[in-house]
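[step 3/7] fold_predict: job queued, chain A
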Amino acid sequence: MKNHETEWISRYLNTPVEITTDLSLICDYEYDQELAKCHIANYGHIYYYTETNEPLDVEEVENILFEIKHTK
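[step 4/7] structure written:
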């Protein structure tokens, strides 16, 4: 799923990013699954790299979202 936020993050990172709540879309590595669960707990959905289906680092998401809020 795309929205304004994911488009901004995609431009910021220069790579496609999407959001989902479906854990089955995230790669099967245990670390990535646990990270995806942290995303759901913190944001209500998972920010993930479209090309690899890996969730973004939580700290990275926090920094980007902070910048989005303070540059509007």
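[step 5/7] annotate
The longest helix spans residues 30-43.
The two ends are 22 Å apart (CA to CA).
exit 0
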